[in-house]
Protein backbone atom coordinates (compact mmCIF):
# COMPACT_ATOMS: atom_id res chain seq x y z
CA UNK A 1 0.00 0.00 0.00
CA UNK A 2 1.45 3.39 -1.01
CA UNK A 3 2.05 5.96 1.70
CA UNK A 4 0.54 9.40 1.52
CA UNK A 5 2.86 12.41 1.41
CA UNK A 6 2.09 13.19 5.07
CA UNK A 7 2.87 9.61 6.15
CA UNK A 8 6.14 9.65 4.22
CA UNK A 9 7.14 12.94 5.84
CA UNK A 10 6.34 11.63 9.30
CA UNK A 11 8.70 8.71 8.71
CA UNK A 12 11.61 11.16 8.78
CA UNK A 13 12.94 11.39 12.39
CA UNK A 14 14.03 15.04 12.03
CA UNK A 15 10.65 16.04 10.71
CA UNK A 16 8.88 14.17 13.50
CA UNK A 17 10.99 16.01 16.06
CA UNK A 18 10.37 19.36 14.32
CA UNK A 19 6.61 18.76 14.26
CA UNK A 20 6.56 17.71 17.93
CA UNK A 21 8.54 20.81 18.94
CA UNK A 22 6.28 23.11 16.92
CA UNK A 23 3.17 21.44 18.36
CA UNK A 24 4.52 21.86 21.88
CA UNK A 25 5.34 25.53 21.23
CA UNK A 26 1.81 26.10 19.92
CA UNK A 27 0.24 24.46 22.97
CA UNK A 28 2.40 26.48 25.34
CA UNK A 29 1.69 29.76 23.51
CA UNK A 30 -2.05 29.09 23.61
CA UNK A 31 -1.80 28.29 27.31
CA UNK A 32 -0.07 31.60 28.03
CA UNK A 33 -2.77 33.57 26.18
CA UNK A 34 -5.76 31.96 27.93
CA UNK A 35 -6.42 32.85 31.56
CA UNK A 36 -9.04 30.09 31.97
CA UNK A 37 -7.93 27.85 34.88
CA UNK A 38 -9.78 24.79 33.54
CA UNK A 39 -7.96 25.14 30.23
CA UNK A 40 -4.61 25.41 32.01
CA UNK A 41 -5.30 22.20 33.94
CA UNK A 42 -6.28 20.33 30.76
CA UNK A 43 -3.33 21.61 28.75
CA UNK A 44 -1.02 20.82 31.67
CA UNK A 45 -2.06 17.18 31.30
CA UNK A 46 -1.28 17.39 27.56
CA UNK A 47 2.12 18.89 28.31
CA UNK A 48 2.83 16.02 30.70
CA UNK A 49 2.08 13.54 27.91
CA UNK A 50 4.48 15.31 25.57
CA UNK A 51 7.14 15.67 28.25
CA UNK A 52 7.11 11.91 28.89
CA UNK A 53 8.02 10.98 25.29
CA UNK A 54 11.39 9.17 25.38
CA UNK A 55 14.20 10.51 23.19
CA UNK A 56 17.58 9.04 22.30
CA UNK A 57 20.38 11.19 23.80
CA UNK A 58 23.97 10.57 22.78
CA UNK A 59 27.20 12.25 23.82
CA UNK A 60 29.69 12.11 20.96
CA UNK A 61 33.27 12.12 22.20
CA UNK A 62 34.71 11.97 18.70
CA UNK A 63 34.99 9.84 15.61
CA UNK A 64 37.57 8.36 13.26
CA UNK A 65 37.85 6.66 9.91
CA UNK A 66 39.82 3.50 9.38
CA UNK A 67 40.13 0.78 6.77
CA UNK A 68 38.21 -2.43 7.39
CA UNK A 69 41.53 -4.27 7.82
CA UNK A 70 42.42 -2.00 10.80
CA UNK A 71 38.94 -2.44 12.22
CA UNK A 72 39.22 -6.22 12.00
CA UNK A 73 42.63 -6.08 13.73
CA UNK A 74 41.18 -4.39 16.85
CA UNK A 75 41.28 -6.49 20.00
CA UNK A 76 40.96 -6.05 23.72
CA UNK A 77 43.35 -3.31 24.81
CA UNK A 78 43.56 -1.66 21.39
CA UNK A 79 43.47 2.15 21.30
CA UNK A 80 41.51 4.06 18.67
CA UNK A 81 42.53 7.71 18.15
CA UNK A 82 39.57 10.07 17.79
CA UNK A 83 39.36 13.36 15.91
CA UNK A 84 39.07 15.40 19.13
CA UNK A 85 41.64 16.43 21.69
CA UNK A 86 41.38 16.37 25.47
CA UNK A 87 39.52 19.46 26.64
CA UNK A 88 37.62 20.04 23.40
CA UNK A 89 33.83 20.17 23.74
CA UNK A 90 31.77 17.05 23.08
CA UNK A 91 28.56 17.04 21.04
CA UNK A 92 25.14 16.39 22.59
CA UNK A 93 22.91 14.68 20.02
CA UNK A 94 19.15 14.08 20.47
CA UNK A 95 17.43 11.75 18.02
CA UNK A 96 20.33 12.16 15.58
CA UNK A 97 20.40 15.98 15.71
CA UNK A 98 23.21 17.94 17.39
CA UNK A 99 21.56 20.29 19.89
CA UNK A 100 24.39 21.34 22.20
CA UNK A 101 28.05 21.13 23.13
CA UNK A 102 29.46 20.49 26.54
CA UNK A 103 32.40 19.50 28.65
CA UNK A 104 32.92 16.26 30.50
CA UNK A 105 32.69 16.58 34.27
CA UNK A 106 32.75 14.28 37.30
CA UNK A 107 29.45 14.14 39.18
CA UNK A 108 29.71 15.71 42.64
CA UNK A 109 27.13 13.30 44.03
CA UNK A 110 28.94 10.22 42.67
CA UNK A 111 32.65 10.66 41.82
CA UNK A 112 32.71 7.23 40.14
CA UNK A 113 30.50 8.59 37.34
CA UNK A 114 30.85 11.41 34.88
CA UNK A 115 28.39 13.65 33.09
CA UNK A 116 28.26 16.56 30.68
CA UNK A 117 28.06 20.26 31.61
CA UNK A 118 26.37 22.09 28.73
CA UNK A 119 28.41 25.05 27.49
CA UNK A 120 26.56 25.92 24.28
CA UNK A 121 23.03 25.35 23.01
CA UNK A 122 22.89 25.15 19.22
CA UNK A 123 20.03 27.17 17.74
CA UNK A 124 17.39 25.11 15.96
CA UNK A 125 17.27 25.62 12.22
CA UNK A 126 14.27 25.03 10.02
CA UNK A 127 14.74 22.35 7.40
CA UNK A 128 13.62 23.36 3.91
Automatic annotation (TrEMBL):
MF GO annotations: cytoskeletal motor activity
Membrane topology summary: Peripheral membrane protein
Annotated GO biological process: bacterial-type flagellum-dependent cell motility; chemotaxis
Primary site of residence: membrane
Keyword Chaperone in record: no
Cellular component, GO, one term: bacterial-type flagellum basal body
InterPro entries, alphabetized: FliN (IPR012826), FliN-like_C (IPR001543), FliN/MopA/SpaO (IPR051469), FliN_T3SS_HrcQb (IPR001172), SpoA-like_sf (IPR036429)
Keyword Chaperone part of the UniProt annotation: no
Keywords: Bacterial flagellum, Cell membrane, Cell projection, Chemotaxis, Cilium, Flagellar rotation, Flagellum, Membrane
Domain Flagellar motor switch protein FliN-like C-terminal residues, every copy: 50-122
Pfam family of the protein (one): FliMN_C
Cellular compartments annotated: Cell membrane; Bacterial flagellum basal body
UniProt family annotation: Belongs to the FliN/MopA/SpaO family.
Main function: FliN is one of three proteins (FliG, FliN, FliM) that form the rotor-mounted switch complex (C ring), located at the base of the basal body. This complex interacts with the CheY and CheZ chemotaxis proteins, in addition to contacting components of the motor that determine the direction of flagellar rotation.
PANTHER family, per database record: FLAGELLAR MOTOR SWITCH PROTEIN FLIN, PTHR43484
Protein's name in the database: Flagellar motor switch protein FliN
